[in-house]
Design goal:
mainly alpha; 72% helix
Length: 67
Amino acid sequence: MNELLQKRGVIIEAVLMKSITLPSGLATSIEQKLQAEQDAERMNYIIRQEKMEAERRRIEAEGNRDA
């Protein structure tokens, strides 16, 4: 679009695009990628929680041992 309009002396600085419809295959791929990223973040969260729980149990066991 810029190439066509530049020849006529029109300079495009910004274009607002609305209602873009992606091909179904592309939309599905994007959704799957986003879902995979969310699943990975969920697993990272679970791993962090489990590590903190293991640390808590270790500290509790040391306290019981020392008592």
